[in-house]
Amino acid sequence: MIFGIDAGGTLIKVAYAKNGTLQFTKFPIAEIEKVASWVNEQSESRVCITGGKAGVLLSLLNKKAKEIMEFEATHLGVKFLLERMGRVEDSYLVTNVGTGTSIHCIENNRQERIGGTGVGGGTLLGLSHLLTGVTNYEEIVRMAGTGSRDRIDLKVKHIYEGKEPPISGELTASNFGNNLFSVAAELSREELLAAVLGLVGETVSTVSVHAAKQCGVSTIIYIGSSFFENPLLKEVVTSYTVLRGAQPLFLENGEFSGAVGALSLVK
Ligand code: ATP
Ligand code: MG
After folding, report:
1. Do 1 and 17 form a contact (C-beta atoms < 8 A)?
2. Mind listing the domains of the chain with CATH numbers?
3. Which of 95, 99, 123 to mutate to test the pocket of ligand 1 (most atoms within 8 A of CB)?
4. What is the pLDDT of residues 75-103, one digit of tens each?
5. Which of 33, 41, 67, 70 is catalytic?
6. 20 to 30 A Cα–Cα from 29, which one of 19, 57, 135, 224?
7. What single Pfam family name could you report for this chain, choosing any that match (predicted)?
8. Closest CA to 220 of 197, 242, 191
9. 70: Cβ below 6 Å to ligand 1?
């Protein structure tokens, strides 16, 4: 068995080849010892590891493993998953919305990290918990999908009352910027969660669109587990990215980019 493992701040993503087919699985970071035992149990196996927790995982393995820098692994994995989807792209931006968000410019087969933001999937979990007490990712995503941001976010058109705004009135002027004092006690958990998702999605896409301009590309590939079964976040990111003139692309199994890239380097 051969393993490519991306041990990130929140989740461990594993890509492995079994009987010649590519398989994917993931574990919470708290189960790092379980992942190590699984790999250790395989008598014939080769492993390549990446991600911020690669060192911790390596120290738990009883066999030699290769380690690769996470930005390089992600770059290789994105290339592989793009080809698998039948897409040909030469120059593009990769925005990895993991625990935090990291942004990379890919040109002529080289990647350069050009920035990031601390607003990411960790913010989604953390703020959601603080505001509503909900801790489970699937539950946060499901509840946010039925909530409205109208009473929480302030749109440009709300400021430009009775007047044509100089930019689209539908843009958010201020996330959580509405007059909340009068309604705070009435807000439902669904409304609050929808607003958290909006904040994360709009921040990530706004930063990405500026980065794409700086890099001179128009396609933005969004990856990271924050998009996993999260149609609302994808919708927010898509509409903001398109509104600002760039094209979003969500890779199938994109959250496994780092793991797939690591797998491709197993010798
Ligand atoms: P980083 O790359 O920043 O070190 P990471 O690689 O662990 O972190 P990802 O796995 O890409 O990050 O994304 C983690 C985010 O995905 C979480 O913060 C959360 O918003 C979301 N997520 C998706 N599925 C789950 C899950 N089952 N449990 C917890 N978070 C999840
Ligand atoms: Mg990661």
Report:
1. yes
2. 2-71+256-263 (3.30.420.40), 121-250 (3.30.420.40)
3. 99
4. 999 999 999 999 999 999 999 999 999 99
5. 70
6. 19
7. Fumble
8. 242
9. no
- Cα–Cα distance measured from residue 89 to residue 87, given in angstroms and rounded to the nearest whole number: 6
Torsion angle of C-alpha atoms 164, 167, 170, 172, degrees rounded to 10: -120
Read off φ and ψ for residue 43, nearest 5 degrees: -70, -45
Strand order in the sheet with 21-28: 21-28, 11-18, 2-7, 46-50, 66-67
Q: Mutate which of 6, 50, 57, 226 to test ligand 1's pocket (most atoms within 8 Å of Cβ)?
A: 226
Residues 123-162: tens digit of each pLDDT: 999 999 999 999 999 999 999 999 999 999 999 999 998 8
| Residue 77 near residue 264 (C-beta atoms within 8 A) | yes
Which ligand 1 atom minimizes the distance to the CA of 29?
A: 7
DSSP-derived letter for residue 188 is: -
Look at the pTM and tell me if it is higher than 0.85.
yes
Cα separation, 165 vs 157, whole angstroms: 7
CA atoms of 170 and 158, how far apart (whole Å)? 9
CA 157 and chain centroid, separation: 30
